[in-house]
Specification:
Blueprint: E1 7-11, H1 19-29, E2 33-37, E3 52-57, E4 68-73
Parallel strand pairs: 1-2
Antiparallel strand pairs: 2-4, 3-4
């Protein structure tokens, strides 16, 4: 059997208020990688999810808008290549 990779894209429009829903979805759908836009995180907000590694960026002006997150199942070999954060992206 050929291994599969389950990748999901989601525009959260504020991730902090959807953490319980996110954790349930990751487990129920056995998601390997999740790409999230509009996290609305600041330097004081973050999430942790068991069995996953979470990489996130905040909008450079530090306010609650924009932002991204990449959530990767911990058993998938990966590394952070660099950190790129621009207001126009």
């Amino acid at each position: 059997m050929v291994p599969r990779l389950h990748i999901v894209l989601w525009n959260a429009n504020g991730l902090a208020r959807h953490v319980a829903e996110l954790k349930a979805y990751l487990t129920l759908r056995d998601v390997d990688i999740m790409l999230i836009s509009e996290t609305h995180f600041t330097s004081k907000s973050f999430i942790r999810i068991p069995q996953y590694t979470v990489y996130d960026t905040q909008h450079p002006d530090g306010t609650v808008h924009g932002g991204t997150a990449i959530i990767i199942k911990s058993n998938i070999k990966h590394h952070l290549h660099g950190h790129y954060n621009q207001a126009h992206l």
